[in-house]
């Protein structure tokens, strides 16, 4: 009898979203109301490598409440051939600790890093963290597959595009691969690899009407050049899925997983009026019953389009309003002005769509006058929810180069999450900025009109009420443990992966 050839066992590759925002011990109850959305980038990469015969899995560290050691232990137990870690600046040190522990136990496992921090500061990061073997710059799908192919066939890495690697003591880079122009050719994100999807992956409380919820990036890139933005990963050239593919993703998520709300996480969902109009018409013609949220610039919306979006299920639009000062908007290289922002938000409210205003405090040039302008602006526009970011000069952004040149501020990397002031404008202190930060937030959320809005929303959508109850029960349990331990406040035990403490409003909103 002829022997049958046994197919090779697929090689394992584990993708890691490392711990970024570790909640201090005693405050775990906040997890019931904060953002638990998965990394869409890792879902895309996992889907791509699976097509080529690899066996991918994903570790969402913060969602699973895993420490650095727990993440590393999971990987070591699986003994993968490859590990891929996505890096934002705030998570670099945690990712480095994970890689160090994995390398000690599994020296032959290849650790590959990518993400926004690598796209902006790749060579410096590889130099500083020797346990990162290789780095992929920019969009990862095609370069990662070229890299894995070269590693499997033991070919020279010099032929792999968009790569950073070591050769002796030297750090080498290869020419960048052009951005993927045809997104329709990519497989759908590997949502099936997430345990308990979609139920365990809710956005922050009040950021959606009712779940389950999933995220979709209908486009990549942003043609604008705001000075505080790092666009090094997807670049300035806009590319988009066709409206039919986006619609099919939405229908797949509803039919397969029961998803009822979509959060479009594009940098600029409304870049094309034609594309959005076609998607809305597909939704209306099919009778698909889903709500969705998106982002937009104030100069991309018009009254008639907003009314069509509302009929097609649009529930909220996030606008980068930033400030109430036209002078600061000019410094940021924002094309819009306060008057046009007011008009866009007014049109949105008239269409019956909720506005989420994204603001920033502490940008260079900020002073007491501009802060007051922002407070006045927030009071007079019809807005139901806001997110106030503490200005952070992210590596890769033009303003970072203006402030720091090309120097690595590693003392700041762990604080670069939009929840810490790491820099203050001339004439102001970080303590002053923090005080004004709290005043802006409390001045908005303590208004009777806004409080009543959230009471009605809580009563109308039971999923939010349930999350609040779980958070409240957790808080009371923490207070009881604190009382029994003889401490005055909630027990807080800071770990080596804790960044710092932050207000509930910041944690709920997150960085924008």
Q: Considering DSSP H and I runs of 4 or more, what fraction of the residues is helical?
A: 25-40%
Shape: globular
Total DSSP helices? 17
- Structural class based on helices, strands and sheet pairing: alpha/beta
Number of domains: 2
CATH topology name of the largest domain, in short, is: TIM Barrel
Total strands: 15
Strand order of the largest sheet: 2-1-3-4-5-6-7
What is the residue-averaged pLDDT? 86
The named CATH superfamily of the largest domain: Aldolase class I
The main pleated sheet reads as: 7 strands, mixed
Strand percentage? 5-15%
CATH level-1 class of the largest domain: Alpha Beta
What topology does this entry show?
Layout: E1 12-17, H1 40-51, E2 55-60, H2 68-78, E3 82-86, H3 92-105, E4 110-114, H4 116-128, E5 134-136, H5 141-153, E6 163-167, E7 170-173, E8 213-216, E9 219-220, E10 239-240, H6 243-257, E11 261-264, H7 273-286, E12 291-296, H8 303-311, E13 314-322, H9 326-331, H10 338-350, E14 354-361, H11 368-380, E15 385-390, H12 398-404, H13 410-413, H14 430-445, H15 448-460, H16 462-484, H17 504-509
Parallel strand pairs: 1-2, 1-3, 3-4, 4-5, 8-11, 11-12, 12-13, 13-14, 14-15
Antiparallel strand pairs: 5-6, 6-7, 9-10
